[in-house]
């Protein structure tokens, strides 16, 4: 669900944009502003994940406003002036939509926003059913995942600090769908590795940064069926 806030100095532009947003699924306008200073005073207290900012406004431009917004909020710029495009994309925004805004073009911008918001959410944390109950795990803390030796339906998650948590009754297919796609890879039928935990990568073997009891580092054998996908992901 996209929860957005609108900032435009023209009330007619705000009304039109709100009308378009109401016609698009999974989009909710939380609040609209026509004054950048009031917007900046309130934005951190609003539960939203996207800001739609007009660029050309008196007193303060949308570009200046964007530089002051928390990085957790995605931004779509709107403007009638094409000369701002390059500067807008330097700020790593979701999209730049020219006025007059068409519904189809706005839908495209929202689809881009959804992809980026979903990626951020995946990278943050996942709630799993584990051996210690419902557990929230930060995905950046996961070093390695393997099939449990006690029950193959379960998966052992090894965290960066060596802690092991057992995921209950979860297959690799569903597990990979929950994890950030560019940060984890399946190595063979029984193991998944975080790319950040790879120390050395060869044709048939991965040497990880994960220490073992004999003071070496964990080695994983690469399954033939996973080589190409792993190599492509690792060399991106």
TrEMBL record:
Record's GO cellular component terms: cytosol; protein-DNA complex
Residue span, Response regulatory domain: 3-114
Alphabetized PROSITE patterns for the sequence: RESPONSE_REGULATORY
Keywords: DNA-binding, Phosphoprotein
UniProt cross-references to InterPro entries, sorted A to Z: CheY-like_superfamily (IPR011006), LytTR_DNA-bd_dom (IPR007492), Sig_transdc_resp-reg_receiver (IPR001789), WalR-like (IPR039420)
Domain of life: Bacteria
In-chain residues carrying the UniProt-annotated modification 4-aspartylphosphate: 54
GO biological process, one term: regulation of DNA-templated transcription
Keyword field contains tRNA processing: no
GO MF term list: phosphorelay response regulator activity; transcription cis-regulatory region binding
Identification of the protein by name: DNA-binding response regulator
């Amino acid at each position: 669900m996209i929860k957005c806030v609108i900032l435009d100095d023209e009330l007619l532009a705000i009304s039109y944009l709100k009308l378009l947003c109401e016609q698009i699924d999974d989009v909710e306008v939380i609040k609209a502003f026509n004054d950048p200073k009031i917007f900046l005073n309130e934005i951190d207290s609003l539960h939203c994940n996207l800001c739609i900012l007009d660029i050309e406004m008196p007193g303060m431009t949308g570009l200046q406003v964007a530089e002051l917004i928390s990085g957790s909020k995605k931004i779509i710029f709107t403007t009638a002036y094409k000369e701002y495009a390059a500067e807008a994309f330097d700020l790593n925004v979701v999209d730049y939509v020219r006025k007059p805004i068409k519904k189809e073009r706005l839908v495209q911008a929202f689809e881009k926003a959804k992809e980026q918001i979903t990626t951020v959410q995946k990278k943050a944390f996942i709630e799993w059913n584990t051996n210690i109950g419902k557990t929230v795990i930060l995905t950046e803390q996961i070093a390695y995942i393997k099939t449990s030796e006690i029950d193959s339906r379960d998966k052992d998650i090894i965290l960066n600090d060596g802690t092991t948590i057992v995921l209950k009754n979860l297959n690799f297919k569903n597990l990979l769908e929950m994890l950030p796609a560019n940060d984890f890879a399946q190595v063979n039928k029984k193991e998944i590795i975080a790319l950040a935990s790879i120390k050395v990568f060869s044709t048939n073997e991965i040497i990880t940064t994960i220490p073992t009891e004999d003071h070496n580092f964990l080695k994983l054998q690469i399954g033939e069926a996973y080589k190409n996908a792993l190599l492509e992901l690792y060399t991106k």
